[in-house]
Target: ABC transporter ATP-binding protein/permease
Amino acid sequence: MRSRRGTYLLGGLFLLGTNSCALLIPWLMKLAVEGLQFPLKAPHSPAYYALLIIAAALLQGTIRIFSRTTLLHAARRIEFQLREELYAKLLALDLPYFSRERTGDILSRFTNDLTNVRMLMGFGVLNVINTVIIYVAALFLMVRLSPSLTAFAIIPFPLMILIVKRLSASMFRRSKRAQEELARLSSHVEENVSAATVVRAYCREDAQIEEFREVNGRYLESNMGMARLRGWMIPVMASAGAFGTLIVLFLGGSRVIAGTLTLGDFVAFNGYLAMLIWPTIVMGWILNLMQRGAASMSRLNHVLDASGTVTDPAEPAPVERLRGEIEFRNLAFSYGEEPFLADISLAIRPGMKVGIAGPVGSGKSSLVRLIPRLYPVADGQIFLDGIDVNRIPLVTLRNAIGFVPQESFLFSRSIGDNIGYGKEGAGAGEIATAARLASLENDVHRFPDGYDTLVGERGVTLSGGQKQRAAIARALLKDPAILILDDPLSAVDARTEEEILGSLAGYYGDRTVLIVSHRLSALRECDLILVLEAGRVVEQGSHDDLLAMDGRYAATWREQQLRAEIETF
Ligand SMILES: Nc1ncnc2c1ncn2[C@@H]1O[C@H](COP(=O)(O)OP(=O)(O)OP(=O)(O)O)[C@@H](O)[C@H]1O
Model:
């Protein structure tokens, strides 16, 4: 905003110019009236003044156009810049931030709050400068014409300012509430679009409509409250303004009749008084605009000032390429107050294949998400190639890891672009190889435009398994030292999962691979399998070791084998 100081200064100068012309008009009218009243004493004819008035009016209009475009364009540019900063900030924030905030709320900052800030920086600033110039200059000229009449004319003004102050404090509270309601409304709509399947599958349409009506009603109520206040404000202010005019007409008229005030001065005085009334009437609206803008700016600052807990190291370790050695030292982690992962100590050599098993909610995803620091890790608990992860620059760390999350996400782009997302500037050949390795190639050939087929709203809808394989291909393309597959094939059957993982085995080479899976058959070939329960490693070893241990792993293995046999039968 500071960089726009020059533009605002220019806008202010234009406003000074246009208002000077506007203020000149009543004075010229005074001279014209005096010319009509005393033609012999007048230096110029009334026609001369009429021409000057027309010229001043034209000049006033022209400069006003420049003042508005200068200031309103500056506000647009500030909005543009803020939007960019906000977007960059969102990309810099970490996952704990997004699990706290509602998506709709974040989106409403990009739309509603940015608009309010633009209004503040455009119309708000324009009107404030305008009001100050008009007030100072018109009052000065009124005092010059008649100090005592000025004192009477401004009697209603303190009352008007008091009303504005009172109403605008209440307006501020309501406008903040309205903005929060709007954010809630956006969240509601957003969730219902994302959860379209769930809503229909559970026949919750009516209940959702009912819930929406409630949120919408609260939004309406807060806006109605504001409209009521605004509705009061203008008539009350206009009446108070009219009262001032009435006083001037009565007292000024009497003085003209008594000959203590010239008709020209009286005309000019009324002209200046009229100029004061409109800025005073709209003062409430401007104050509201400013308060809404300020409330929105504070909501934007809430995002802009948010600092992620996962940040780049202040003193990064000199590391160029990671080999894939991972060590957990007494790793502990919690999402809130309660510790969740605890006492995890393990050394994974580069090139090892590690399987992670355990019941639902045992902490498998939480554990693997800590390696690329998707969630904050305490110092001295995770080491890659002997270096504390917190000392490795985030780009180096994350570039070395191919992470396939449990829920695969595809962008609304072509399938090729979705896979190519794993590596900037990836060629068609590399994309096809990655798709082949992830057993997706045959599916892509069946799509109407092959790799150019659009995914999502305007293109094909991929099956859960296809999405998962596209996400695997994306990670493979990265050629990472560490590959983390967080239950990546839950959407395909056990045999297909085994086949796909089998074909992936050829790609693993000397990469370190961590696979999370509920199906133990998918982990059988791993060098080491960890069994988690309630955030702790309760068993570990190779498949054979764990069977020999005859513990939880062995029991689950027998159960899954039995189920598979029954299903085959
Ligand atoms: N972002 C989060 N914020 C707070 N708690 C979370 C978050 N993510 C997971 N949890 C909690 O942590 C626990 C472990 O979740 P996690 O996803 O690691 O389990 P999991 O073993 O991978 O489960 P699943 O087999 O179902 O994928 C769960 O109780 C879950 O509610």
